[in-house]
Amino acid sequence: MIGCVIAMESEAQILKEQMHPCKASVRHGKNIYVGQAFGEDVLLIVTGEGKVNAAAGTMLAIERGADVLLNFGVAGGLNDKTKVANVYLVENCVQYDFDLTQLSGGKIGTLPGEKDNLLPLCCPTSLSFPRRVLGTGDRFNDSKDDHELLLSLGCSLRDMEGGAIAQVAKNADIPLVSVKAVSDVYGSGSTTEQFERNLTYALCKLKDALKEVFFALKDLHKNQAPLEKIASFQKDHDRLQVGFYASEPQNGVTTFDLRFKKPNAGDYLTPESLHSIEHLLATTLRNSEKKEHIVYFGPMGCRTGFYLLTTGLGFEEVRALLQDCIRRALTLDTVPGSGKKECGNYLSHDLEGAKEELKKYIEVLKTV
User: Fold this and answer.
1) How many angstroms separate the CA atoms of 207 and 131, rounded?
2) Distance of CA 142 to CAs 175, 195, 203, Å?
3) Strands 119-120 and 243-246, how do they pair?
4) The Cα angle at residue 55 between residues 36 and 5, in degrees rounded to 5
5) How far is residue 2's CA from residue 12's CA, in Å, rounded to a whole number?
6) Is there a contact between 73 and 11 (Cβ–Cβ < 8 Å)?
7) Secondary structure, 3-state, 1-16
8) Can you tell me whether residue 137 is helix, strand or coil?
9) What is the number of other CB atoms lying within 10 angstroms of the CB of residue 243?
10) How many whole angstroms separate alpha carbon 228 and alpha carbon 166?
11) Rounded CA gap, 250 and 212, in Å?
12) pLDDT (tens digit, 9 = 90+) per residue, 235-257?
């Protein structure tokens, strides 16, 4: 779902006119509209002006299921790279009123945990609007000092919300696209008078751009579709015990779960033993009479066991094969393939530890 985080009702109106149906509600003092626009499910939240309002509205959109964020509205222009009613795509933004330089150094606008003061936004290649840097702060004024600061930070646009929305989006790892139409330009008279005079005109130009923006978001939205949970993550690991399990075959391949340790019980295979068991069983399995049926053998990252993928073998055949291979592994005096030229971490092996774990597991195989 596309979450649209907008400061003012007048800005939101240009999208509400495209939403069918448009169901309205209020949550935490924010007006919320839900419907469809340009063929996409849309959640529209009107936050109110300012960074705190914008951040709260963005979090509300994410909590309600938005997996792509859109911020649009009017902004002030700062230099000759901007013109009234022109539409721009924000490529980076900075919170120019956030200053920890006296405490921690760095640049003005550098947020906690960040190395740079500029936060990057998503810029779909299909959007043809000129790209600009946005400065965000909780001030609407004609201040010369603010103007000089914004220019020194590389900004061509300013608003009161975009940087806060970008901060929340980055922390939540959700793509954000921001599109702005200029309502006023510094040095062309009173910012307030320009804003009041040009607001409607700027929003008309922005409304004309919405279709193009939503088509770009559609591609982005598809690319960000939620990942399906794979079969192994659907198992209830609170109920899994030490044992030997088989999944339903998929495309002719059966996955066997060799569970050496109970999950999340505090007892895990050591990295060295895990590594050596991988070498021992991968070698003996691929040297067995069933080697043509072996697709893959490898360790679980949680260090509680291994996966074995086979074709054309039943549960009992694989159980017997594993017992034979473990017995053969227990006779070996060295770990196969453990030389420096053969192994990417050749010092991380424990043959005796591996054998102790294999002895325990062969007894498990006898009882399943």
Assistant:
1) 18
2) 32, 12, 22
3) unpaired
4) 20
5) 14
6) yes
7) CEEEEECCHHHHHHHH
8) coil
9) 16
10) 27
11) 41
12) 888 889 999 999 988 899 999 99
Give the length of the chain. 368
**pLDDT recorded at residue 226:** 54
d(CA 199, CA 260): 67
277 three-class SS: helix
Whether the bond between 21 and the residue before it is cis, its omega within 30 degrees of 0, is yes
Q: Domains (ranges, CATH) in the chain?
A: 2-223 (3.40.50.1580), 231-367 (3.30.1360.80)
**Given the structure tokens 């299921």, which residue do they identify?**
65
The tokens for 354 are: 């591996």
What does the pLDDT average to over 162-174?
A: 94
Does residue 240 sit in helix, strand or coil? coil
pLDDT digit string, tens, across residues 2-37: 999 999 999 999 999 999 888 999 999 999 999 999
Q: 9-16 and 191-223 helices cross at what angle (nearest 10)?
A: 40
Q: Residue 71 CA to chain centroid, in angstroms?
A: 18
- DSSP letter, residue 233: G
> What does the alpha-carbon distance between residue 282 and residue 278 come to, in Å, rounded to a whole number?
6
- Please name the residue that has the structure tokens 């960000």: 224
Token couple for 102: 């006296």
26-64 CB burial, b ≥16 within 10 A, e <16: eeeebbbbbbebbeeebbbbbbbebbebbbbbbbbbbee
- Cis peptide, bond prior to residue 249, ω within 30 of zero: no
Amino acid at 204: C
Hey, what are 206's tokens? 């922005």
Q: Which two tokens stand for residue 356?
A: 């102790």
Burial of 110 (0-12, 13-18, 19+ CB in 10 A): buried
